[in-house]
Amino acid sequence: MVSPAVSETSLRLLLIEDHRPDALLFWRRARRFGFDIEPHHVMCMRDAIALLEQHDFDAIIADLHLPDSDGLEGVQQLLEVVPQTPVLVFSGYSDQRLALSAVQAGAQDYLVKGENDEHLKRALLYAIQRKQIEERLRLQAERDGLTGLLNKATFAHSIHALLQGDTAAMVVFYLDLNDFKPVNDTYGHAAGDELLRSVSERLVDLFREQDLIARLGGDEFAIAVAGVLPQDRIRQITTQINDTLRKPFSISGVSARISASVGVAQYPQDATSAAALLDTADQRMYAIKRRRTSATANALAPLRLHPLVSSHDPSDVIGVAGYPDEDIEWSPTQLEQVLRSLLAAPQADRRFLHLPAEALRSDSAATAIIGQLTEHRFTPGALTLSIADIRTEDPIVVHNLLQITNTGVQLCMGRGCGLENLYRLPFDAAVVPDVFFAIDADRHLIAAWMELCRSLNLVTIAALPADSPARQTLQQIGVQQLIVKDPFYTERVAG
């Protein structure tokens, strides 16, 4: 870890010196610096390495001649264990060539035993400060500035170095965030940056300290796990990534939902070099992302159609209402197919489409709907989109709905939508809650709800079976449109 800032009151020092009188003299001089010194002293390199593996120090002062280490090899050993900690050579010889060699080997300075206290103090402080600057510059070069993860170049170099060494197997998980753009566009780049940092934190928590985690740029991340992993474990990790990132993020006071497309590649099964391993994982990620947003051309969207009629004249069919199957796995392509099926229905001018909010939790959902309206040359104002179960904060859905309604599409408040959504979305209609159909329904509550809709100029729409006893009541209280649920209407229209 990076050494703490140099303090004028406290320094934690490790002295490696096998001659006790020299060690006592050093500590006596160091205490005259005016610092609160936390002294640690060992007499051989073996003990020093063991201590450094357990504790951090502000600086290491090492004699070049020890019982188990002689010359500059000791400096190299120390830097291999703690490359971020400044090492100062402490020698009884004033030798310019040896001093230069020590600095070239990685030492911060070369101190001669017996030099004046002021020189020793200055050399110690400057060494710590230089090392901190070096460490900051190294981190800036190796790390992503936003998240603190490895950057793309360092990630690729680290993988290459591991594969050139003792690592015989490795798995790379290459992921791209889905639905990141609406959060960034709706709430601004600061919110987008906050989301990327939160994603990074979750990935760090999910993986081990020895695993490599990187932000490759934009909303792409990668993780490298060294070792042989069975296929079951690889699938488990992929699922864990998806499950972790699907949980809501609290960003700038709102709840944001995203997911990830994850591509996986293994070394040496899929690639024989670091570059090929990353490229393979990247290609597989994009293949998964394409499958998420596209489907086979002959796939049919399960959609039940029902007549939309005027409540005043049930024989007056004014449109067709579409209800997708509840178990659809939503994607932009599936959304296109549902709308295509609805717009292709004959014998009606208006269209009503019921959708769960889940259908619009994709950054390209609005594009899919608008594209189908354009393709079918369908007037946007003749389509009513009824959305169910909108959460209090659902930025991606809200972003898509605002884009869609900007074209003229009518928006209907479906079941499970709290009244607070009236402040966020431009609703044109509202579906009568199912609870109003009950025999013991509170007529006063129904009347109050109808009055609210009238005051907001919302068209009221009810969906109920043809033989429902509530039909006459709904007509009496002023419901304007009825969706008559006819189980055989789809087949009749198709025939």
Describe this structure as you would to a colleague.
The chain is α/β, with parallel strands linked by helices. It has 16 helices and 21 strands. It has an eight-stranded mixed beta barrel. The longest helix is centred in the first third of the chain and has 26 residues, at 117-142. Residues 1-9 and 294-300 have low confidence and may be disordered.
What's the number of helices?
16
The strand order across the widest sheet is 14-15-16-17-18-19-20-21
Shape: elongated
Q: Between the first and last Cα atoms, what is the distance in angstroms?
A: 72 Å
Poorly predicted spans: 1-9, 294-300
Portion of residues within helices = 40-55%
The main β sheet shows up as: 8 strands, mixed, barrel
Count of DSSP E strands?
21
